[in-house]
């Protein structure tokens, strides 16, 4: 168990590089669009190399064929789960400290509850108390940042919330939504009825009425059944899903580039974005998934999940050491403690 916790903490340290490096790039004038979009260009390259090393070039051809089966689905899930998610993270980094973005993004644990409920899952009431704790901590962290900025005649609290907290909260909803859509598409494939595109609405409702992950709501069952299914084992691999969603996110970045028309990035920003893709996108993800796979009991899985709360601490320390950020106020530190407590309780009971 100690080994798994250490691996989880190491993954949290690498994950936190996202928030520190994004703040660094913002502080030297790098446009947030390049910090966001270039990460996924590099991610596509790096993950492709990993897949080829593991399974050969033939696996990339298989994934390309799978993408071509329903490109709209992959563009929607990639655009939401990766595009909108990381655009929100990088935009927020332009307006608040990296540790504040990290703390606010921890709200994704709460947003995941609402998304899973929309897909029919139910939870014990105590889970919502833990979610409330996390929400309270997020509010305190952002109030601390806003009040501190106001004292130093920087952006007022309203702007901190609008340009910092709101984009990070949008990211906190986008990431689990995109991933849940992909999971649901894979889950639908387990039902042979899901493969018949000519089913009537009533047949769709009946075919999903008895599944474990879909609620009794007719609307929920109908929407779930309308998500496409893919009759393949390829979606059992996390790296395959990352590849498909990353490729699907590219149209989102192209459209955003056309709308924003950002100035070209400096070489330092390109390099730092590559580091984010490598450290957070590949190393951190690999360590975290490995630790989770090595866990043999639910308590060990919960322990690994809880280590992700360390991202806030690593981002806070990293910002202070590398960017000379000031120590947060007592209100901000209290918010961090409450967030971490809520995450630990949440993981322990799941």
UniProtKB/TrEMBL annotation:
InterPro entries: EmrE (IPR032713). The chain crosses the membrane at residues 32-52, 72-93, 99-120, 127-144, 156-177, 242-264, 270-290, 302-323, 329-347. Keywords: Membrane, Transmembrane, Transmembrane helix. Pfam families: EmrE (PF13536). The keyword Ribonucleoprotein does not apply. This is EamA-like transporter family protein.
